[in-house]
Specification:
The chain has 345 residues and is mainly beta. The chain contains one helix and 28 strands. The strands form seven sheets. A four-stranded antiparallel beta sheet has the order 3-2-1-28. The chain has a four-stranded antiparallel beta sheet with strand order 4-5-6-7, with no helix packed on it. The chain has a four-stranded antiparallel beta sheet with strand order 8-9-10-11, with no helix packed on it.
Length: 345
């Protein structure tokens, strides 16, 4: 049963190993009409499961364990949201912060932030990850000494079909392009350099398959790209991540399900910025405040925006106007310790 039909979502967090207050993965039931969450409790006690992903076909949940000696964990998901362990594997890197499966559900990719590397894990018939088939280390540094002293892989974004993927690296101001061969090894096929000091964090793909948008964590920007050929990205331009004064540190970036709007969480100012995607560049529409501090992650499910407020210890639910794309005032706020990611369908 999928999250969409069961109404189950899972929430990752930081635990004491990373200075957080959580104890593991929390499950909640989502009301399909109101969007409100009913917490079901901790369903997996595991260290710092800071980012979550689902298998594209099987009821399997994956989490990075953001530790100095990083690991990736997997569980079978049951209809009530409970989890049964499938396995834990070393990522071979420091502080894994993001992961994703390929479209076929044959491989799992992990971004190791601290060591600036990518690990590749084959998935068996049950969805369990195997030992690494590759570990690719980036090299170089960026223009901001205290944040870009070396590579910091922050996201892996597999193509919706095929064997290629983007790897976003905050430390080297780059988006790398890789292709995976039949043995599970990666070959670099391209690299797009951002403007110095951008600090690219996450990339959001448009459902048209042509456009994508990159959040710059260090310079508070959104860069719009067109994909061309098998490997390239062409910059169309940049816009500011926020219209507010004060410290702005973008985190999660999302294209709405119908492709008309772009959403960006801005830590520091504590907002979610809304952009219309009706022109060459994202057009700033408005910015809404969340109810607390440090919106680390956002996702749109069933006409509602879910904001994980890491430092406030809460997940906030805001209804999204289907015409304007603008989130309204929060309708629900539930306490979750140090939330970093909410995953549904």
């Amino acid at each position: 049963m999928s999250d969409e039909t069961s109404g189950i979502v899972h929430i990752g967090c930081y635990t004491a190993e990373s200075g957080g207050q959580g104890t593991g993965i929390v499950a909640a039931r989502r009301d399909p009409v109101s969007g409100a969450l009913d917490l079901l409790g901790v369903v997996a006690t595991t260290p710092s499961p800071s980012f979550l992903a689902r298998h594209p076909r099987l009821p399997v949940l994956y989490a990075v364990n953001e530790l100095t000696e990083g690991t990736v964990s997997a569980w079978t998901v049951h209809d009530d949201g409970s989890l049964s362990p499938l396995g834990v594997r070393s990522t071979g890197g420091d502080s894994p912060c993001h992961l994703a499966t390929d479209a076929a559900g044959e491989y799992l990719y992990v971004a190791n932030y601290g060591s600036g590397s990518l690990s590749v894990h084959p998935l068996d018939a049950a969805g369990a990850p195997g030992e690494r088939t590759d570990l690719v280390r980036h090299a170089g540094h960026g223009a901001v000494p205290d944040r870009q002293e070396g590579p910091h892989a922050h996201m892996v974004s597999p193509d919706p079909s095929g064997t290629s993927l983007y790897a976003v690296d905050l430390g080297t101001d780059s988006v790398y392009r890789y292709r995976r061969d039949d043995t599970g090894r990666l070959r670099e096929t391209g690299r797009t350099a951002t403007r110095p000091g951008t600090g690219p964090r996450h990339l959001a793909r448009h459902p048209d398959g042509r456009r994508c948008y990159l959040a710059g964590e260090l310079d508070a920007s959104v860069t719009a790209y067109d994909r061309h050929g098998a490997d390239g990205l062409t910059e169309r331009g940049r816009v500011a991540a926020s219209g507010r004064s004060g410290p702005v540190q973008p985190s999660e970036i999302r294209v709405g399900p119908d492709g008309r709007f772009l959403y960006l969480a801005n830590r520091g100012v504590g907002t979610v910025a809304v952009f219309a995607l009706d022109g060459d560049l994202p057009r700033y529409v408005t910015e809404v405040e969340t109810t607390g501090d440090w919106p680390r992650h956002i996702t749109v499910l069933g006409g509602h925006l879910y904001v994980s407020e890491e430092r406030s210890g809460a997940v906030v639910v805001l209804p999204v106007d289907p015409t304007t794309g603008v989130p309204g005032p929060a309708i629900s706020r539930v306490a979750v310790a140090s939330p970093t990611c909410l995953l549904g369908s």
